[in-house]
Amino acid sequence: MVERILVTGGMGQIGYFLVNQLLEENKKEREIVVLDNFSNNKYEASDLDKSVTLIEGDIKELPDLGAFEVIYHLAAQISISYSVSDPIDDFLINAFGTLQLLELAREHNSKIVVVSSASVFGDTNSLPVSPDTVLRPKSPYGASKATSEIYALAYHHCFDLKVAVVRPFNIYSSLISSDDPYSGVITVFMENALSDKTLLIEGDGSQTRDFVTTSYVAEILRSIVKKDNLWGEVVHIGTGKETTILELAQLIIKETNSSSEIVFGEPRVGDIYRSVADISLLQKNNLPMPKSLSEEISSFIKEWMERVT
Fold first, then answer.
1. 232 in Cβ contact with 157 (< 8 Å)
2. Which residue of the set 141, 151, 155, 172 is catalytic?
3. Average pLDDT over the chain, rounded to an integer
4. What is the pTM of this model?
């Protein structure tokens, strides 16, 4: 029997790694369908394996897709600034769009993994950040993602739907360039270091993040659907280790043999000071454990250089 799998937002960076890993795992017995509106694609349709069905569409107006055994819901509006300028459209994409996918899953009794965001928390003094931490989003984006989570868990409890919510922390991959509006600090530091340009830190550099590779996030998404006891759970995906922004800058300069200097500017308004994931649920369920940033940075730089040259 061929297993049908839907990946919404499959042209994004998580989608890229997830689709390829799914194919590597079992290409012959899977039919993979990617639904994407190409609003934030990180690779081209020509890069997709020929066995993958690509549908250009929007989760706000879900096309007739048929039944799937598994749904990975990655599609989202991810710009905080856009959510502030148009909170209604942000809600329609992130909250209503997720509700439509949940209805599709309920109709066909599909397993569904809903990808959320650590932005649902706002500021928290409790570290590491537990999946049970109270949600206090500070933006319409965080609110719409929190709403999508609440609906997902409600569908599990009300309809016995096999739903899991995942919150990736600070993801990075070689697919993102510094001119991308959604690029993270690693991307910006990397490009500047390779050109021996100044690395600007906003603040004193003591603020922390939990950096995790996008390929590892995809690996955990695949692993979750094989663990029946994780349905109805919220899973944090990170390394469980804090890295200060200053440590990050120093590490990248060292690994790239750069002569870049580090300078400090004004702190970013509303920036979260410390962030690190509680990954105890990964440990308890014997899921693959992540490597730290210092362990991953060399291979990341190698991938980056291969992409840009």
1. yes
2. 141
3. 92
4. 0.94
